[in-house]
Design goal:
Layout (H helix, E strand, L loop, with lengths): L27 H13 L7 H11 E13 L2 E7 L4 H10 L2 E9 L2 E4 L3 E15 L5 E14 L6 E14 L2 H6 L4 H7 L10 H13 L3 H10 L3 H17 L17 H35 L22 E4 L5 E4 L1
Parallel strand pairs: 1-7
Antiparallel strand pairs: 1-2, 3-5, 4-5, 5-6, 6-7, 8-9
Length: 331
């Protein structure tokens, strides 16, 4: 059986540059596809253990999830940690959503040493609402994901910036209630705020309080302390970190350079030669002084000068030294 271009093991006869690309299953976008499938397999009986397993499969232990959007009272930005991520996804379905999936278009990938960043400027979060009425909501924005570069390829950071949203109501429902103005008025009202349900928004507001309390909760779970004792311990440790002086940077030990033997010997030789020359010059000077004083008795310590400048700068005047040590003025 001959291989065809649709065969995954097909190799082009035109060389390595015409071989098929790497399957998209190893790309980060496939992880979003797997996450969509896992969300579709959710049932009404899915409990907290199911959501914890979902977060463990797709998010790192130190992962963070950030949502940015603008409401009527101004821009909002919420960041939650790994322990609060499972509850975030569950609140989406508790607000009347029956289906949730993400669509990425024209995303850009950048590879780093230990992570892969996916930047999608045209991301859509699609939610299907069954109550209070059948509505499809498309929330559009920019999604930036950072995956770990390993076999699990889990999400380390999730940042979704919402720009706009649309709520779509089927025409069949409008036709059914065309004669009922009250139902039409209810259908014309939005059921979400920037594509998020009230359950999700209330949970994000609550996370502002819960996120700083994660340290207290983990300490209570680990050491089985009372809430008051956990608070005292955390405050004391934080006070210690504030009072403790900053750690001094470690200094590298200075290495002593060894002197070369040749340079040492040459230096010693030159110093010895200089010392010998200075000693020889001193001996010569002493010998000259001794010979001069021995040849001229009575000269003593008189300077050995035969001519001195005359007085008042007169070059014709000079002073001569007699053998008896007396000065005689000559003109």
């Amino acid at each position: 059986m001959s291989s065809t271009p649709h065969d995954p093991f097909y190799s082009s006869p035109f060389g390595p540059f015409y071989r098929r690309h790497t399957p998209y299953m190893v790309q980060p976008e496939y992880r979003i596809y797997e996450m969509n499938k896992r969300l579709q397999s959710r049932t009404e009986d899915s409990d907290n253990l199911w959501w914890d397993a979902f977060a463990t499969e797709f998010f790192e232990d130190d992962a963070t999830l950030t949502l940015s959007f603008c409401l009527e009272d101004g821009p909002k930005r919420y960041t939650i940690g790994r322990t609060l991520i499972p509850r975030y996804f569950s609140t989406v379905f508790e607000g009347g959503v029956t289906d949730l999936y993400y669509v990425l278009k024209h995303s850009k990938e950048s590879y780093h040493n230990s992570s892969i960043t996916v930047d999608c400027d045209q991301c859509a979060m699609v939610t299907q609402h069954g109550k209070p009425m059948f509505t499809k909501v498309c929330t559009e924005g920019r999604l930036i994901l950072e995956f770990t570069f390993d076999d699990l390829m889990r999400i380390k950071t999730w940042h979704f910036t919402i720009r706009q949203y649309r709520e779509l109501v089927p025409r069949s429902i409008l036709a059914m209630h065309a004669q009922d103005p009250q139902v039409l008025d209810q259908l014309s009202k939005n059921i979400t705020r920037m594509g998020l349900t009230n359950f999700t928004l209330n949970y994000l507001r609550l996370c502002v309080i819960l996120e700083p309390m994660q340290e207290l909760m983990s300490r209570h779970k680990t050491y089985n302390l009372s809430p008051r004792d956990c608070l005292k311990t955390c405050l004391f440790q934080k006070w210690q970190r504030m009072v403790a002086p900053p750690a001094e940077p470690t200094r590298q030990p200075t290495t002593k350079r060894r002197k070369r033997k040749n340079s040492t010997s040459s230096t010693s030789n030159s110093s010895a030669g200089n010392a010998a020359n200075s000693t020889g010059s001193k001996k010569k000077t002493t010998a000259a002084n001794l010979s001069l004083s021995s040849q001229v008795p009575g000269l003593g310590a008189t300077p050995n000068r035969s001519l001195n400048p005359g007085r008042d700068g007169d070059p014709c005047q000079s002073t001569a030294v007699t053998p008896a040590g007396q000065f005689k003025q000559k003109r």
